[in-house]
């Protein structure tokens, strides 16, 4: 009985009639996985590019707040709501979009008056807290002892990428979200 099984295997091995079909099947599966990977790569990089552009634009507006908001340097809840609408407008094209976007605003000053809005952060967390980046703050030209305040904005959006963990590093993802943080010196 074992001999007949061995004979069938040898016959199958020598008979090349189904080889093309099997090779076609394996190559098709490989190409499908390759195209899925490339599609995922393009979608993630495109979304990350939009996030980078939006976060840089928003932090530029935030740093100009002394000129735009009656010289008030401190951020508040109303600012957070405005920046969330602005972020939705920049990323989704509609400020009233139902799609989720998380915005975290941070302010750091040498006197310890820094603030993070929202205080309770869910899934969207900055890669590095602004207080940990305070060494990047330059000293004032007028008074070499005073450090210039810093602003940071972090944007997070949901994605459904299959290869997200392979394609993104720690600084670009946060608990199922992709994120982008931008920091700027106050004016």
Automatic annotation (TrEMBL):
<keyword id="KW-0472">Membrane</keyword>
<protein>
    <submittedName>
        <fullName>Protein TadF</fullName>
    </submittedName>
</protein>
<dbReference type="Pfam" id="PF16964">
    <property type="entry name" value="TadF"/>
</dbReference>
<feature type="transmembrane region" description="Helical">
    <location>
        <begin position="20"/>
        <end position="42"/>
    </location>
</feature>
<keyword id="KW-0812">Transmembrane</keyword>
<keyword id="KW-1133">Transmembrane helix</keyword>
<dbReference type="InterPro" id="IPR031582">
    <property type="entry name" value="TadF"/>
</dbReference>
């Amino acid at each position: 009985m074992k001999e007949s099984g061995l004979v069938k295997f040898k016959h199958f091995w020598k008979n090349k009639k189904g080889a093309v079909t099997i090779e076609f099947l394996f190559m098709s599966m490989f190409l499908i996985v390759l195209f899925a990977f490339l599609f995922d790569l393009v979608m993630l990089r495109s979304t990350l590019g939009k996030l980078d552009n939006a976060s840089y634009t928003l932090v530029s507006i935030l740093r100009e707040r002394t000129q735009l908001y009656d010289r008030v340097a401190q951020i508040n809840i109303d600012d957070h709501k405005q920046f969330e609408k602005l972020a939705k407008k920049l990323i989704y094209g509609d400020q009233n979009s139902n799609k989720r976007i998380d915005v975290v605003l941070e302010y750091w000053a040498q006197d310890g008056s820094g603030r993070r809005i929202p205080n309770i952060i869910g899934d969207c967390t900055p890669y590095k807290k602004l207080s940990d980046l305070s060494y990047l703050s330059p000293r004032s030209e007028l008074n070499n002892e005073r450090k210039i305040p810093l602003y940071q904005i972090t944007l997070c959006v949901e994605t459904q990428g299959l290869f997200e963990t392979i394609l993104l590093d720690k600084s670009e993802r946060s608990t199922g979200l992709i994120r982008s943080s931008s920091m700027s010196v106050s004016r």
